[in-house]
Structures are given as structure tokens and as C-alpha cells.
Write a structure and sequence with these properties.
The protein folds into two domains: 2-180, Rossmann fold; 185-307, Helicase, Ruva Protein, domain 3, CATH 1.10.8. 52% of the residues lie in helices and 7% in strands. It is built from 19 helices and seven strands. The strands form two sheets. A five-stranded parallel beta sheet has the order 2-3-6-1-7. The chain binds adenosine-5'-triphosphate (ATP) and magnesium ion (MG).
């Protein structure tokens, strides 16, 4: 029964944590109560929001997704609440805001922690009374929307630092769905692998050749800093690059950084007997040796990979990144001593996102641009799969 509903919701997972979340969704979906979804980047906050909307009485109406972190601060209010003609320079026409567009449906406000303080007051007003004003108008307007907000920030600490209003925080947190990171719900990894290999091979027109037991174990042992988005991206790359060939542990190793540190990233086993712990260590050592051998085999059998476009598409850093970089540097000197600046920029953005496992904040910091700029550029370059 629960499984059927989960399917309807589009939420994959067998862990107790996911089952509990599905249970909460069933309880809150029929109501209009505001829901706050929290969790690290890539854990599935938007998936859960869509799930709530899908089984709510508003399902026939749209769910409008707005990313507060992606809209430049100067225009955020007019984007959310709309504006009157002549409200500011460039406001040639009256424009509806996202709240108005979502009337009767649901609005999903992602990265709520990025909302400027002045806008937070207006947002709180909509939550409390369903009223808002278009920019350039003093006329209150009514709207009937269900609000779902999400953040990967610690809002409590944002409140302490004066970046987030306490009244809004208290209002939002009454129903808080916390999605644990993937490394804390390892039971979900297998069903996610099964789903993504099926879905992504079909989407890419590939006949899937299966995945070895060791490769699956490696997936389970990894700590997934980029969560489900990282898992999905890696599976897609493995499928596309391998063109359906059976996925072996050596292939996985190319995509999972710090593979040799897997042991250290595992939670410390508390209830294991010394024999169990020893067996696990030996197993891990064997796994690593096996993947080393696989990699050596592949290096002998296959020429080094030269297609730069594919490199851009590959979402994660390989373990032997230095060697790869050297090859690429040489290749680019041979036939590509000059590339368009836009292309360079795109590559750097993908590189930074890969390096930081899709963590936009860290990627933006490394690139020395704001997160808002990062969003805009990523959209421009069509690499939104990171968002
Ligand atoms: N339980 C799940 N079942 C199936 N797919 C999932 C699940 N959770 C996440 N995904 C997939 O993982 C990717 C990331 O999910 P989503 O965009 O919802 O994450 P997020 O928490 O909103 O991330 P961010 O904080 O970076 O915005 C999406 O492609 C989504 O379809
Ligand atoms: Mg999101």
C-alpha cells in the first residue's frame, strides 16, 4: 500500500527514513499547511515537494518552483509579487508575480535562506493572510497558494546571525521534513541504482549490461557528499561512457573520488565483533586490489580518453585527475591553444561543480563569483542538471 503511494509520489527508497517521510507527506498533503523541507544539497527536497503537490487537492493546478538563490536581489520582489506598469525604470508593462501565477496551486520556494530580509517580511505576510502587493501598488491582493519552502542552510543559525527573521522561521518550521543525507540511509542506494540504471539507459537509448556485485558494494560504501544527484550523475556517466557495458568496480572507481578513503568515511561500526570488523577490512582491501587490477587492465586495453566534450559532460572527478589533466593540457596545446572564453567559463563551472560534488556554495566560492551568478551562468550554458 505504502509502496503504491510511493510510486505515485515518484519517491524511490526503502529506508525507514524515507518510509517515515512518505508517511508525513500523506498526512500533510491534504491540508494547506506550510511545509519546510531541509537537507543537504541533492537529497531530494524538490522531489518531496513535488510529491506533496501531487497528492494534494491542488494537483490539477500548477506547482511553481522558484529558486530564491537564483534571482538577483534587486528584482526578487517584482518576480515574486509582480509589478505595476511604471513601478520602476524598465517596468513597461504590468507583470504577474510567481504567487499570482501559482494561484490555486502550490509555490515551491527553494533556498529560502537566500531571501533578503526586506522580502522576508512580505513573504511572512502572504503566509499569514494570503495578502501581498505588487511592486508599485498599495493595493493588497489576495492569493490562494500552498507554500512549500526548502533550504540546505541551518536557518536557526541564520536567525542567530540576524540573516533570517525569527518570526518567519517559527512560522515555517512547524512542519519540518528533514531529509537525511544518502550516507545515513544506505538502504536507499540499491533501489536508487536499480531505478536510475533503468530510467537513464532507456532515456539514452542504451541496453543496460548490468552492474557487478563489487561495483554495487562500492556504491554502498561511498559517503556521497553530493547525495542522490551525485549518484544519478555518476550512473548516467557510467552508462553513457560504457555504452551499456557491464559496470565493474574499476569503472566506478574512476568516478568516486577518495575511493581509498571509503573505509574512513564509513560510520564507525559500534556493535561489530572483532572478527566481523577484520573480515570487513580484508574485504575492503580485496575490493581495492581488485579495482586496481581492473583499472590496469582497462589502461592496457583502451586508449586514453581524449574527447574533451565528453569530459565536460562527465560530472565527477576521476581518481587519476592529474594524469588526465596532463593528457588534456597536451591535447589542448596541440589543437586548441585558444578556446572561446565562454567555453572556458563553462568548463570551469562544470569542473568546480564536479570538484565540490554539486555543492553550489563551495563551487561559487572557488570560482570567486556569487551563487546567483553561478545559477545564471549554469542556465545559460544548459548545465542545469546540477541544480
Ligand atoms: N527519493 C528519490 N527518488 C528518486 N529520485 C530522487 C530522489 N531524491 C532525489 N532524486 C533525484 O536526485 C536529483 C536531486 O534531487 P532534488 O533536486 O530534489 O534535490 P535537492 O535537495 O532539491 O537539491 P538542491 O539542494 O541542490 O536543490 C534529482 O534528479 C531527483 O530526481
Ligand atoms: Mg532543489
Amino acid at each position: 500500500m505504502n509502496g503504491d503511494i510511493q510510486k505515485e509520489l515518484g519517491i524511490i527508497g526503502e529506508s525507514l527514513e524515507i518510509k517515515e517521510i512518505v508517511h508525513v507527506i500523506q498526512q500533510v498533503a491534504p491540508t494547506d499547511i506550510t511545509v519546510l523541507i531541509t537537507g543537504e544539497s541533492g537529497v531530494g527536497k524538490e522531489v518531496i515537494a513535488r510529491g506533496i503537490h501531487k497528492v494534494s487537492r491542488r494537483k490539477q493546478k500548477p506547482m511553481i518552483s522558484v529558486n530564491a538563490g537564483a534571482i538577483p536581489e534587486g528584482i526578487i520582489e517584482s518576480e515574486l509579487f509582480g509589478h505595476e506598469k511604471g513601478a520602476f525604470t524598465g517596468a513597461w508593462e504590468t507583470r504577474k508575480g510567481y504567487f499570482e501565477l501559482a494561484d490555486g496551486g502550490t509555490i515551491f520556494l527553494d533556498e529560502i535562506g537566500e531571501l533578503p530580509l526586506a522580502t522576508q517580511v512580505k513573504f511572512l505576510r502572504v503566509l499569514e493572510s494570503g495578502e501581498y502587493m505588487r511592486v508599485g501598488s498599495a493595493q493588497p491582493r489576495k492569493v490562494d497558494v500552498r507554500v512549500i519552502a526548502a533550504t540546505n542552510k541551518d536557518l536557526e543559525s541564520e536567525v542567530r546571525h540576524g540573516n533570517f527573521r525569527a518570526d518567519l522561521f517559527f512560522r515555517l518550521r512547524s512542519i519540518n521534513i528533514r531529509i537525511p543525507p544518502l550516507r545515513e540511509r544506505k538502504d536507499d542506494i540499491q533501489p536508487l541504482i536499480d531505478e536510475f540504471t533503468k530510467e537513464l539507459s532507456a532515456r539514452n537509448g542504451i541496453t543496460f549490461g548490468g552492474i557487478s556485485e563489487e561495483a554495487q558494494q562500492a556504491f554502498k560504501a561511498y559517503h556521497w557528499p553530493g547525495n542522490i544527484r551525485e549518484l544519478k550523475n555518476i550512473i548516467e556517466s557510467l552508462l553513457v561512457i560504457g555504452n551499456g557495458r557491464r559496470i565493474e568496480v574499476g569503472d566506478v572507481r574512476k568516478y568516486i573520488r577518495d575511493f581509498s578513503e571509503i573505509g574512513r568515511n564509513l560510520p564507525v561500526p559500534t556493535k561489530k565483533t572483532p572478527e566481523q570488523a577484520e573480515r570487513e577490512l580484508i574485504y575492503r582491501a580485496l575490493l581495492e586490489m581488485k579495482s586496481d587490477i581492473m583499472e590496469l587492465k582497462q589502461m592496457i586495453q583502451k586508449p586514453v580518453y581524449h574527447d574533451r566534450d565528453m569530459m565536460v559532460k562527465m560530472p565527477l572527478i576521476e581518481v587519476n585527475a592529474e594524469e588526465q589533466n596532463a593528457v588534456h593540457a597536451d591535447a589542448s596545446l596541440l589543437d586548441e591553444s585558444v578556446v572561446p572564453i565562454k567555453e572556458m567559463e563553462k568548463r570551469m563551472i562544470v569542473e568546480a561543480l564536479r570538484k565540490y560534488h554539486g555543492n553550489r556554495k563551495l563551487a561559487a566560492k572557488a570560482l570567486n563569483i556569487s551563487e546567483r551568478t553561478l545559477y545564471r551562468r549554469a542556465k545559460e550554458y544548459g548545465i542545469e542538471k546540477w541544480f
